[in-house]
Amino acid sequence: MERILVIGAAGQIGSELTLALRKIYGNDNVFATDLRMGPKELIDSGPYYVLDVMDDKRLIHFVIRHRITQIYHLAAVLSGNAEKLPLQAWHINMQSMLNILDLAKEVEDLKKIFWPSSIAVFGPSTPPYQTPQNTVMEPTTVYGISKLAGERWCEYYNLKFGVDVRSIRYPGLISYKTEAGGGTTDYAVEIFYEAVRNGAYECFLREDTELPMMFMDDAISATINLMEAPAEKVKIHSSYNLEGISFTPAQLVAEIRKHMPELAVTYKPDFRQAIADSWPKSIDGSVAREHWGMEVKYDLARMTELMLREIKSKYGK
Questions:
Q1: What's the per-residue H, E or C state across 241-300?
Q2: Res 181: pLDDT
Q3: What is the tens place of the pLDDT at every residue in 126-147?
Q4: Which residues face 33 on adjacent strands?
Q5: Does 145 share its domain with 273?
Q6: Residues 254 and 154 both lie in one domain
Q7: The pTM is what?
Q8: Neighbour tally for 248: CB within 10 Å
Q9: Which residues, 6+ apart, have CB-to-CB distance to 247 below 8 Å?
Q10: What order do you get walking across the sheet with 4-7 strand by strand?
Q11: Which range of residues forms the domain containing residue 70?
Q12: Would you state the pLDDT for residue 217?
């Protein structure tokens, strides 16, 4: 029986991934943890603990006590926030990950690790369109530098110690269940909420800034599919490219206005514009499709319709 630990369960990915895992493995077998108490749905549906992944002694005690067999390590300081506190972000992102990898090396029952990478590993010298799996990677942000270093550590622990660590380079993720959390692609979440609440949005990126994105349901499905794939199909232990949908703020606004013609949008680029300019515009995910069958079900139109419907429902509109 699998016993799964989700670290960072109260975040954008973790809150939805935890519930999806509980449907598959049973509520009592998926342990949600974070630095703070999480959403009521997570607490009510299964075990939830306040746990600091930086506390390696408490972490190993927790893993052994609960006989954990898989860890999804999602806790991190994201791109926008990391630029404000670069050394602190580097320390948290790297040390927390190394704590997990060392655990996997030492604890016999712990069989699989998931650690998320990001399109932030790429930089201005990376081919911007259909960025291939293997390419130039020269990130210019502390978040991207930590993710690139993390990819190398993942592969190292796999090669040297046999740790079965699996990873995805997430594009920008869009969800109606959790609001934005400090990332450069978060305008694509904020705009839906502000459209419903206020009918207006001030975007922190230029209207022509094209970035790779993905609806959360597709990202959750890809994550679980990768972790459930037979070991022989997982041939990359640094991180897999994940191909979603690419669009600009202007294209997203046009799609939203099909449902809300009155939406008013202004553009006031901030420091995140330089981050976005250093990232790819589209991603080639063919290797993930070939190795373990990655699929994308949501395009821009379908995602927009669902986002607006669900957020309006939240606010009784």
A1: ECCCEEECHHHHHHHHHCCCCCCEEEECCCCHHHHHHCCCCCECCHHHHHHHCCCCCCCH
A2: 67
A3: 999 999 999 999 999 999 999 9
A4: 7, 49
A5: no
A6: no
A7: 0.94
A8: 16
A9: 210, 211, 213, 255, 300
A10: 48-50, 30-34, 4-7, 70-73, 112-114, 164-166
A11: 4-171+215-241
A12: 96
Task: Identify which has the larger pLDDT, 38 or 201.
Answer: 201
CATH number at residue 261: 3.90.25.10
Q: Which residue among the candidates 48, 72, 143, 170 is catalytic per the annotation?
A: 143
Give domain status of residue 123, yes or no: yes
Measured CA distances, 274 to 79, 143, 184 (Å): 12, 13, 10
Quick one: three-class SS letters along 61-117?
A: HHHHHCCCCEEEECCCCCHHHHHHCHHHHHHHHHHHHHHHHHHHHHCCCCCEEECCE
Domain count, the chain: 2
Percent of the chain with pLDDT over 70: 99
Same domain, 124 and 222: yes
- 143 in active site: yes
- 3 state DSSP class of 124: coil
**How does residue 223 score in pLDDT terms, banded at 50, 70 and 90?**
very high
The pLDDT value recorded for residue 179 is 75
Question: What pLDDT, in 10s, does the model give residues 86-107?
Answer: 999 999 999 999 999 999 999 9
At residue 94's C-alpha, the angle toward residues 89 and 95, to 5°, is 105
